[in-house]
Structure formats: C-alpha cells, structure tokens
Write a structure and sequence with these properties.
- This protein is an alpha/beta fold.
- The protein folds into three domains: 2-39, no CATH class; 47-128 and 250-284, Nucleotidyltransferase, domain 5 (2-Layer Sandwich), CATH 3.30.420.10; 130-245, no CATH class.
- Helix content is 57%, strand content 12%.
- The protein is built from 14 helices and five strands.
- It has helices at 2-7, 11-18, 22-39, 86-93, 111-120, 130-149, 156-162, 170-180, 184-199, 205-220, 225-236, 238-242, 252-267, 274-284; strands at 47-57, 63-71, 76-82, 104-107, 125-128.
- A five-stranded mixed β-sheet has the order 3-2-1-4-5, with helices on both faces.
- Helix 5 (111-120) links the parallel strand 4 and strand 5.
- The protein starts with a helix and ends in a 5-residue tail after the last helix.
Length: 289
C-alpha cells in the first residue's frame, strides 16, 4: 500500500485499486510511514538550513505555518515542526540528537530563527541567506518604481531594474540610465541594490566585510526613511551576512524543499492533520539516507 500511495496521484485512487475502506488505508499507510521514519533517525548533521512555509489557511483565521530543518549534506529534510514561533521550535528541539554537531545554520532574516539557532546550536555559525538580503533591496527598488510607473508587473522597466546590472546588455543599461536620470530617490536605491550585487561577487571574508561597511555608511548618509529603516536590519544582521563568504552556504536547497512541500500538499488536496503531513513530507524529501 505504501508503494501505491507514493506512485498513485492520491489516496482515493489507492482506495479504489485495493478495494479497502478509507480508515484501513490511512491506518496502514501512516503506520508504515512512521516505521520508515524511525529507521532513518540519525544525529544532527554539520550543516543545516531553517525556513517556514504555510500548511493551511483556516476560514476567518490566521494561516498555519510549519518549520523545516534541512540537512544540506544529505540533501533531505531532517525534521518538520508544527508552528514557527520560538516556543514551538524549542519544544521540538528537545528530541534533536547531538545539537553540538551543527557547525553552520543557514536562515532567512528571521529574528525568531536567529534567536532559536543561537540558543539551540551553540557551536554553529549563522549564515544569512544571500537571496533574502538581495531581495530586501529589490523590494525597495520596486516600491519606488511603483510610485512612478504604477503597479504594472508587465512594465519592462520593472524586470530591468530588478535584474543584476552585470547581466544586462549594453542597450539595457542605457535604458536604465535614461530612465533614472531625473529620478533621484529611485536612482539612489538602485545604486545601493547594485552595490549589494557586486558585494556578493567579492572574494574573501575581509573584503566582503569592508564592502558591507561602505554600503552601511552610504545608507547612513541617506535622507530616504526607507533606506534608513533597511540599514537597521542590515546592521543587525551584518555578522551573519558576512559569514556567507566563509563557505558560501545559502538557503537555496531549503527553498527547493518548500516548493516540493507545496506539491505534496496539492497532491493530497491539503492536509487536516499536521502529523500526517509531517510523515508524508519526510518521506517525500528523504534524500540519500
């Protein structure tokens, strides 16, 4: 039955194929998934990633979230936790095996995850995901662009402004220069975004730290409130941002598993039970272990 659930589109088709009751099917399948999960238990790896994704949205209520702990080395999900606040994470962390093994934790710019990782993994270096840092500046560019062109996603200038300037054709760079010529605030924000992109091409932790300090100094001189506000965030995460250059770890794999989680949800037409969802997701993202 477990083979059928992994290869059929949904459990209703398995039920029809095996001519069994819904209750029996669910009982057998999830008992087998739990047995398989127990056979794959192992100590925490040296490099992990943390992120959250939504599980369901209840009518007239808030969205339910789950947190995933990803094993970068074995390319699999290590654990799925119900909730995303620190209390939920700490309750689940009690069952973690040998948290002192963890040397690197990749995460987005979440203060909750940062605090949890510092308390739970004492030997770990925290690494802020580069794409989340770049996206902060991209969002700022987009916000100022909307004030000029309106919220038109099909506007070609939107795509040009958000792309890495180094990857643009010469004529595209010229279009951007002409567009920004009389737009002081947008030009300043775009220049900061490009500096951040260049900084991530820097080699070496010391050079990267110097480049980040220059960016923070420029942001500190800005008269734009949004830039000053973003500077506070970057300043609070400066050490984690610089740690990226010591190994160049990112949360890319974690984001990939989040996408796979959405496929698991769609295939089941949603989940009412977190316990069942956890078992299905751990089985679908079991990696090489």
């Amino acid at each position: 039955m477990l083979w059928a659930t992994e290869n059929f589109i949904d459990l209703k088709r398995v039920q029809r194929a095996y001519r069994c009751s819904r209750g029996l099917l669910y009982k057998v399948v999830y008992e087998q998934l739990e047995r398989k999960r127990r056979t794959r238990l192992y100590d925490l790896p040296s490099v992990i990633g943390i992120d959250e994704h939504s599980l369901r949205k209840r009518k007239y209520q808030s969205v339910d979230y789950v947190t995933v702990i990803v094993d970068h080395k074995n390319k699999r999900i290590y654990e799925v936790i119900d909730g995303r606040n620190k209390a939920d994470l700490e309750d689940a962390a009690v069952a973690f095996k040998r948290p002192e093994n963890v040397k690197v934790v990749t995460l987005d710019l979440s203060n909750t995850f940062k605090s949890f990782a510092k308390d739970t993994f004492p030997n770990a270096r925290l690494v802020a995901d580069r794409f989340h840092v770049q996206r902060c500046f991209g969002k700022l560019v987009n916000r100022f662009r909307k004030r000029i062109t309106g919220d038109d996603r099909k506007n070609p200038i939107r795509r040009l402004l958000l792309r890495d300037g180094r990857k643009l054709e010469p004529y595209e760079r010229k279009v951007i220069r002409l567009f920004l010529k009389d737009k002081e605030h947008l030009r300043e924000v775009y220049s900061l975004k490009e500096r951040v992109h260049r900084r991530y091409r820097t080699r070496g932790k010391k050079r990267a730290r110097k480049a980040l300090i220059k960016i923070l100094d420029l942001m500190g001189q800005s008269k734009i409130p949004e830039v000053v506000g973003l500077r506070k965030t970057i300043l609070a995460w400066r050490n984690e941002i610089v740690e990226y250059f010591n190994g160049r770890y990112s949360n890319g794999r974690v984001e990939g598993f989040n996408r796979k989680a959405k496929l698991v949800q769609r295939r089941a037409f949603g989940f009412r039970s977190f316990k069942n969802y956890r078992l299905q997701l751990l089985n679908a993202c079991r990696g090489r272990v």
